[in-house]
Design brief:
Blueprint (H helix, E strand, L loop, with lengths): L11 H13 L4 H27 L14 H25 L9 H22 L26 H34 L3 H11 L6 H34 L11 H27 L8 H31 L3 H12 L3 H13 L7 H4 L2 H27 L15 H24 L5 H6 L1 H4 L28 E6 L2 H13 L3 E6 L7 H4 L7 H27 L16 H23 L20 E6 L7 H13 L4 E5 L3
Antiparallel strand pairs: 1-3, 1-4, 2-3
Helix pairs in contact: 2-14, 3-4, 3-7, 3-8, 3-13, 4-5, 4-14, 5-6, 5-7, 5-20, 7-8, 7-20, 8-9, 8-13, 9-11, 10-11, 11-13, 19-20
Length: 642
């Protein structure tokens, strides 16, 4: 048998309490210390930003040879961390891996904050960040002048904006059921109001869960190839040039693998901290840590292969300039950075072959931090060592980061951890609904003989004398009992109006013959519109409105239109799917929840049965009570209004 992913003999109420206690209680002293340090680092970044904008980027260590340096290093590093977060959650969702429940929420939140940090550096590198709108595709007022859609830098803008939007939607829609749980539990009027607005009136009805699962699958399916596309495009910022050390076809897969590697390492670091600080050892187990370490071993090995492939290609090409760059990295003035990069990224992950290291929290924490350092060194080595010695020895130079550049990087670290700490204080860092969805198959609540530990025994249910114009709420505390009761109610032609559950239960859709949602069709047609829009728009700009000669290529160079066409396909599809989900589920900010037991939505399962005035006979009601008692219902209530 597989090791349990949820430790301890618990019930649904205990799961809810364990995962909500850190949100509902006052933060401890360690949280205040951590956020104090993070805010101090963020303040350093604010001061450095002010100096940069006021004095100009001459305050950096850039020179005429090294014109891209620490700022672009930081950009690619943050992008790598951000891109892996959604990819980890999305691909594990598609593959239906149960262990994703412990890391998915952290990975998704990490993505949002990391991409925000990454987007800061291209803006500040512009020198005049208030003119950022120059990169947005719009016609110049002085004539038909558009941005160059054939440029990898413009592809970057579309790719990162699309990725951030899709990641934000994927993260937030997954968070809504847990926000609703917090809304129903809180005693504070202010918190209830805020959580009610943020939860969009989520009630956990059958149709909402059905559409929610389909939407999550659609967004995961869109995000997975999007990650590959986006980081490949980031690599093309370098690979489309003729600079030795950059001009390589290995860069797209090399960057994608490195991004996933660094993202897994950052998730591992954050998960270990959350596990200790919030006392989540029962939900983030050593099994989760070990599985993540296996992924680090795999991706670290692939990164090591990429390093040696890069050396081999430079040697095999017989290009003296390419090989000189490799030799300069190995034994030049920055050689210590190169060897540290190899040590941290290619050698250290190999220790995870040892089970004793894989299951050691301290070793894992140290190695994950060193991997993050190593991936930053990799970006620095790629950029600086490829630039500081060009074709003219007279212009060779050494780049040294200035205090202002270091301050900017420290500031983004401060923003990232401040944002994550605030998120962890007001929202669960482990998905409550997803933990409950695997509770019966992956926790210690299941004994060796296969018999479930009983929660609450059914009690004798009260009887009523008048039922006319009412709806009956049959309440269960176990999903298996709920399914058994539903089957009997449906077989006897009781009118089941709706079912409310704290997580999605597979099989109920078929029992009630629920129609399949049309969200996939919406996603397909919206994506098709996005693809046509992107392709036609670029074709019109470059072939008709603003034709330009790029190296003698034809104006209609359709291959260069593919990246933006793909990004708009994904963007249109994701936005249409999410808006359709909210519209069809009748969810909007501040909406009132339709769940009839608003105070117990995290622990109870409700079947809502309606009667017309001709079926309210005593024998029918007795039969209803008999089925409820037989299938293990714990309570029957009357809903006063339909």
């Amino acid at each position: 048998m597989r090791e349990p992913l949820i430790l301890g003999v618990k019930n649904y109420k205990q799961v809810t309490d364990d995962l909500c206690v850190n949100v509902e209680s006052k933060p401890g002293k360690y949280w205040y210390i951590a956020i104090g340090i993070s805010l101090s680092a963020f303040l350093i970044g604010v001061i450095s930003s002010f100096i940069t904008i006021y004095e100009g980027i001459g305050t950096w260590g850039l020179n005429k040879t090294v014109n891209w340096a620490m700022d672009i290093t930081n950009f690619v590093w943050w992008i790598g961390i951000g891109h892996a977060g959604t990819f980890i959650s999305a691909i594990l969702l598609i593959l239906k891996q149960r262990w994703r429940t412990a890391v998915s929420r952290t990975a998704e939140a990490m993505t949002i904050f990391a991409v925000m940090c990454a987007g800061f550096f291209p803006l500040i590198h512009m020198g005049r960040p208030w003119l950022f709108f120059y990169i947005i595709p719009y016609p110049n007022t002085r004539g038909p002048l558009w941005v160059n859609f054939n440029s990898a830098l413009v592809w970057d803008f579309f790719a990162i904006f699309t990725y951030f939007t899709v990641s934000l939607l994927f993260w937030y829609t997954g968070l809504i059921p847990d926000i609703a749980t917090l809304r129903d539990r809180t005693k504070s009027r202010l918190r209830r109001f805020v959580y009610n607005v943020l939860s969009f009136g989520w009630s956990g009805s059958l149709k909402q869960w059905h559409r929610h699962e389909v939407l999550s699958t659609i967004l995961a399916g869109l995000a997975t190839p999007l990650v590959v596309s986006v980081h490949s495009i980031v690599s093309l910022d370098f690979a489309t040039s003729v600079i030795p050390g950059w001009h390589s076809t290995i860069f797209p897969p090399y960057f994608v693998i490195g991004a996933i590697f660094s993202g897994f390492a950052m998730v591992q670091t954050l998960v270990i901290v959350m596990r200790k600080v919030f006392k989540l050892e029962n939900y983030i187990t050593l099994k989760h840590i070990e599985t993540m370490n296996k992924m680090l071993l795999l991706t670290g090995s692939l990164v090591g292969i990429a390093y040696f492939t890069e050396i081999f290609m430079a040697w095999y090409s017989n290009n003296p300039y390419e090989f000189s760059v490799v030799l300069n990295r190995i034994k030049g003035p920055y050689r210590w950075l190169y060897w540290l990069m190899l040590l941290f990224n290619a050698v250290l992950p190999q220790f995870f072959w040892l089970k004793r290291v894989r299951t050691s929290i301290l070793s894992t924490f140290i190695i994950s931090i060193l991997i993050n350092v190593g991936m930053w060194l990799e970006r620095f080595v790629i950029i600086v060592t490829s630039l500081h010695r060009d074709y003219l020895p007279s212009s060779w130079t050494i780049y040294i980061p200035s205090v202002v550049e270091i301050g900017l990087f420290v500031g983004t670290l401060g923003f990232f951890f401040t944002a994550f700490l605030i998120f962890a204080k007001f929202f669960p860092v482990v998905s409550i609904a997803e933990i409950k969805s695997i509770f019966k198959v992956s926790s210690e609540v299941v004994k060796g003989d296969g018999e479930l530990v009983k929660d609450n025994k059914p009690v004798e249910l009260p009887r009523f004398s008048s039922f006319r114009g009412q709806q009956f709420m049959i309440i269960y505390n176990d999903e298996n009992k709920l399914i058994e009761g539903l089957k009997k109610f449906v077989s006897l032609n009781f009118k089941v109006v709706d079912v409310f559950t704290p997580f999605h239960i597979h099989g109920i859709d078929e029992i009630l013959n629920l129609k399949k949602t049309r969200l996939p069709k919406v996603a397909f047609f919206a994506g098709s519109i996005g693809a046509v829009t992107g392709f036609v728009f670029q074709s019109w700009v470059h072939a008709l409105d603003w034709p330009m000669n790029f190296g003698g290529k034809p104006y209609f160079s359709f291959l260069s239109f593919i990246p933006i066409t793909f990004e708009l396909t994904v963007l249109f599809s994701a936005l249409a799917s999410v808006f359709s989900f909210f519209f069809r589920s009748e969810l909007f900010p501040g909406a009132k929840s339709l769940n009839p037991i608003i105070d117990d939505t995290g622990d109870k399962f409700v079947v809502l049965i309606d009667f017309d005035e001709f079926s309210l006979r005593r024998e029918i009601i007795d039969k209803l009570y008999g089925i409820a008692f037989e299938t293990g219902a714990i309570e029957i209530k009357i809903k006063q209004e339909k």
